[in-house]
Amino acid sequence: ILYEASIWRRLDHPNVIPFLGLPSIDGLPHLMSPLMQNGAADDFVRKNPNVNRVRLLVQITQGLEYMHTRDPPIIHGDLKANNILVSDKGSACLSDFGLSRVHVECTSTATLATSSLSAPAPAPAPITRTYDANFRWGAPEVLLGEMRRTPASDIFSLGRLKVELLTGQVPFPGLTDGTIIERIIASQYDRPTDSDTIACGLDDDMWALILECWARDYLKRPSASQVVERLRLLPDPPSVNPSWRPRAKADGGAGDSSLRTLIP
């Protein structure tokens, strides 16, 4: 928790949830941030189906771009809709920096990754190893132990997050863990084609961008800055209600009630 605080307190961006302190409660350190009345992004889009999800994705990627362009870059490491909080004004903010790391380039890393990409994927071994609970969003090179998390692995997870927000479902819904791992390793991804998802913004241009984020060769994935630029060129989705406004914050006192405490 102290390491997470050391990363988080360096960040200052409209699309990164602010760090308010590390108070000690009953002798234990607690991370503290503002209370986000609209909750996590996955619940937010379910409760507000007409919200502009592409705009949320732009905001999320802007926060990630900020982290990746620090010197040295900072990796989020756990991008998924449940780790994106939505402010009272409807803005998306990155949160949960427990897996965030400062990224330092190593000359041997690229060699390892490039050589492993050209080799055939082992058959049963990846299925039997232990995976992180959030493997549905994970980049294959991280899941296979070929590389540690990098800005490029964040971009892969960002692609998963895009589909999650546009469909309202976690990646690979209804599939067993073993089948999911097999598909990730084989780069097999089914495009959602239902009319509701398309209306929310998953058109041909968005899908093409998502596939670039999922490139098996991490060197071929776009940067966060490039993703922001591409997303800004996309039109508002057909499902967006121009008159929609985020729900107003409920009346209540200030002070502690406006703080969210993350217990380790």
From TrEMBL:
Q: Where is the signal peptide?
A: none
Task: Provide the coiled-coil residue spans.
Answer: none
List, for all copies, the residue spans of the domain called Protein kinase: 1-234
Q: Name one GO molecular function term.
A: ATP binding
Query: Where are the stretches annotated Disordered?
Result: 241-264
- Known InterPro entries for this protein? Kinase-like_dom_sf, Prot_kinase_dom, Ser/Thr_kinase_AS, Ser/Thr_Kinases-Pseudokinases
Protein name stated in the entry: Protein kinase domain-containing protein
Organism (species):
Botryobasidium botryosum (strain FD-172 SS1)
